[in-house]
Protein backbone atom coordinates (compact mmCIF):
# COMPACT_ATOMS: atom_id res chain seq x y z
CA UNK A 1 0.00 0.00 0.00
CA UNK A 2 1.52 3.33 -0.99
CA UNK A 3 1.35 6.62 0.90
CA UNK A 4 -1.62 8.82 0.17
CA UNK A 5 -1.96 12.58 0.05
CA UNK A 6 -4.69 15.21 -0.05
CA UNK A 7 -5.46 14.73 -3.75
CA UNK A 8 -6.34 11.08 -3.05
CA UNK A 9 -9.12 12.01 -0.62
CA UNK A 10 -12.66 13.33 -0.84
CA UNK A 11 -14.13 14.53 2.45
CA UNK A 12 -17.75 13.45 2.92
CA UNK A 13 -19.87 15.54 5.25
CA UNK A 14 -22.60 13.22 6.51
CA UNK A 15 -25.85 15.18 6.72
CA UNK A 16 -28.21 12.39 5.74
CA UNK A 17 -29.89 11.62 9.04
CA UNK A 18 -33.36 12.35 10.29
CA UNK A 19 -32.19 14.40 13.28
CA UNK A 20 -34.33 12.35 15.68
CA UNK A 21 -32.26 13.36 18.69
CA UNK A 22 -32.61 17.01 17.63
CA UNK A 23 -36.40 17.03 17.30
CA UNK A 24 -36.20 16.41 13.56
CA UNK A 25 -33.97 19.39 12.83
CA UNK A 26 -31.35 19.00 10.12
CA UNK A 27 -28.21 19.02 12.27
CA UNK A 28 -25.94 20.49 9.60
CA UNK A 29 -28.17 23.53 9.32
CA UNK A 30 -28.34 24.27 13.05
CA UNK A 31 -26.58 27.51 13.83
CA UNK A 32 -23.43 27.55 15.91
CA UNK A 33 -21.60 30.80 16.51
CA UNK A 34 -24.05 32.58 14.19
CA UNK A 35 -23.69 30.26 11.19
CA UNK A 36 -24.93 26.85 10.12
CA UNK A 37 -22.49 24.14 11.25
CA UNK A 38 -22.13 22.93 7.65
CA UNK A 39 -20.55 26.28 6.72
CA UNK A 40 -17.96 25.95 9.46
CA UNK A 41 -17.05 22.44 8.32
CA UNK A 42 -16.83 23.41 4.65
CA UNK A 43 -14.54 26.32 5.49
CA UNK A 44 -12.24 24.13 7.63
CA UNK A 45 -12.08 21.37 5.02
CA UNK A 46 -11.35 23.78 2.17
CA UNK A 47 -8.33 25.05 4.12
CA UNK A 48 -7.15 21.42 4.31
CA UNK A 49 -7.09 21.10 0.51
CA UNK A 50 -9.37 18.13 -0.12
CA UNK A 51 -12.32 17.61 -2.40
CA UNK A 52 -15.64 17.84 -0.52
CA UNK A 53 -19.09 16.35 -1.06
CA UNK A 54 -22.18 16.45 1.11
CA UNK A 55 -24.32 13.39 1.78
CA UNK A 56 -27.87 14.67 2.46
CA UNK A 57 -31.33 13.17 2.21
CA UNK A 58 -33.32 16.39 2.64
CA UNK A 59 -32.88 20.15 2.25
CA UNK A 60 -31.00 19.55 -0.99
CA UNK A 61 -31.51 23.11 -2.25
CA UNK A 62 -29.85 24.56 0.84
CA UNK A 63 -26.92 22.16 0.71
CA UNK A 64 -26.48 22.67 -3.05
CA UNK A 65 -26.26 26.43 -2.44
CA UNK A 66 -22.77 25.84 -1.02
CA UNK A 67 -21.54 24.92 -4.51
CA UNK A 68 -20.49 21.38 -3.62
CA UNK A 69 -21.80 18.07 -4.95
CA UNK A 70 -24.71 16.73 -2.89
CA UNK A 71 -25.48 13.01 -2.97
CA UNK A 72 -28.45 11.22 -1.43
CA UNK A 73 -28.39 7.74 0.02
CA UNK A 74 -29.06 5.04 -2.53
CA UNK A 75 -30.76 2.97 0.18
CA UNK A 76 -34.20 4.13 1.30
CA UNK A 77 -35.46 4.87 4.80
CA UNK A 78 -32.43 6.60 6.34
CA UNK A 79 -30.24 3.51 6.80
CA UNK A 80 -27.57 5.39 8.76
CA UNK A 81 -23.99 6.48 8.19
CA UNK A 82 -22.90 3.28 6.43
CA UNK A 83 -25.44 3.97 3.69
CA UNK A 84 -23.89 7.42 3.34
CA UNK A 85 -20.43 5.85 3.12
CA UNK A 86 -21.56 3.55 0.29
CA UNK A 87 -23.28 6.35 -1.60
CA UNK A 88 -20.21 8.57 -1.28
CA UNK A 89 -17.85 5.86 -2.49
CA UNK A 90 -19.99 5.51 -5.61
CA UNK A 91 -19.88 9.27 -6.17
CA UNK A 92 -16.18 10.10 -5.79
CA UNK A 93 -13.25 9.83 -8.16
CA UNK A 94 -10.58 9.66 -5.42
CA UNK A 95 -9.09 6.54 -3.86
CA UNK A 96 -10.34 7.36 -0.34
CA UNK A 97 -13.25 9.00 1.39
CA UNK A 98 -12.81 10.78 4.70
CA UNK A 99 -16.11 10.87 6.53
CA UNK A 100 -17.31 13.23 9.23
CA UNK A 101 -20.68 14.10 10.74
CA UNK A 102 -22.38 17.39 9.93
CA UNK A 103 -22.78 18.34 13.60
CA UNK A 104 -19.16 18.56 14.78
CA UNK A 105 -17.99 22.19 14.40
CA UNK A 106 -14.76 21.66 16.37
CA UNK A 107 -12.88 20.00 13.52
CA UNK A 108 -9.11 20.07 13.98
CA UNK A 109 -7.10 22.08 11.49
CA UNK A 110 -4.98 18.94 11.07
CA UNK A 111 -7.98 16.59 10.60
CA UNK A 112 -6.97 15.40 7.12
CA UNK A 113 -3.26 15.20 7.97
CA UNK A 114 -3.94 13.09 11.06
CA UNK A 115 -5.76 10.49 8.96
CA UNK A 116 -3.07 10.53 6.28
CA UNK A 117 -0.45 9.93 8.97
CA UNK A 118 -2.50 7.12 10.54
CA UNK A 119 -2.93 5.41 7.19
CA UNK A 120 0.79 5.69 6.43
CA UNK A 121 1.66 4.26 9.84
CA UNK A 122 -0.90 1.46 9.94
CA UNK A 123 -1.14 0.68 6.19
CA UNK A 124 -4.80 -0.14 6.76
CA UNK A 125 -7.61 0.32 4.22
CA UNK A 126 -9.78 1.85 6.97
CA UNK A 127 -8.75 4.21 9.76
CA UNK A 128 -11.21 5.26 12.46
CA UNK A 129 -10.85 8.07 14.98
CA UNK A 130 -10.31 7.17 18.63
CA UNK A 131 -10.90 9.77 21.35
CA UNK A 132 -8.92 7.96 24.02
CA UNK A 133 -11.97 6.13 25.37
CA UNK A 134 -13.83 4.76 22.38
CA UNK A 135 -13.87 4.61 18.60
CA UNK A 136 -15.67 7.40 16.74
CA UNK A 137 -16.65 5.47 13.59
CA UNK A 138 -18.25 8.34 11.65
CA UNK A 139 -14.81 9.93 11.52
CA UNK A 140 -13.11 7.50 9.15
CA UNK A 141 -10.72 7.28 6.23
CA UNK A 142 -11.91 4.51 3.93
CA UNK A 143 -10.34 2.97 0.84
CA UNK A 144 -13.02 3.02 -1.86
CA UNK A 145 -12.05 -0.55 -2.79
CA UNK A 146 -13.96 -1.65 0.32
CA UNK A 147 -17.30 -0.92 -1.37
CA UNK A 148 -18.13 -4.56 -2.13
CA UNK A 149 -17.72 -5.68 1.47
CA UNK A 150 -19.66 -2.63 2.68
CA UNK A 151 -22.52 -3.41 0.30
CA UNK A 152 -22.55 -7.05 1.43
CA UNK A 153 -22.85 -5.90 5.03
CA UNK A 154 -25.64 -3.45 4.21
CA UNK A 155 -27.57 -6.10 2.30
CA UNK A 156 -27.44 -8.42 5.29
Automatic annotation (TrEMBL):
Pfam families named among the record's database cross-references: NTP_transf_3
**What organism is listed for this UniProt entry?**
Priapulus caudatus
The record ties this protein, via NCBIfam families, to: molyb_mobA
| Keywords of the record | Cytoplasm, GTP-binding, Magnesium, Metal-binding, Molybdenum cofactor biosynthesis, Nucleotide-binding, Transferase
- What protein name is recorded for this chain? Molybdenum cofactor guanylyltransferase-like
Q: Which CDD domains match?
A: MobA
The MobA-like NTP transferase domain, residue ranges: 11-154
Q: Could you tell me which InterPro entries the record lists for this protein?
A: MobA-like_NTP_Trfase, Molybde_CF_guanTrfase, Nucleotide-diphossugar_trans
PANTHER family in the cross-refs: MOLYBDENUM COFACTOR GUANYLYLTRANSFERASE (PTHR19136:SF81)
Amino acid sequence: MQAINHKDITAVILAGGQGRRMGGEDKGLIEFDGRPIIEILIEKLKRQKVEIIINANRNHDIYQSYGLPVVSDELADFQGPLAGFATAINAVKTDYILTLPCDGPFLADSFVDLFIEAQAREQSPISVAFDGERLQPVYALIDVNRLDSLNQFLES
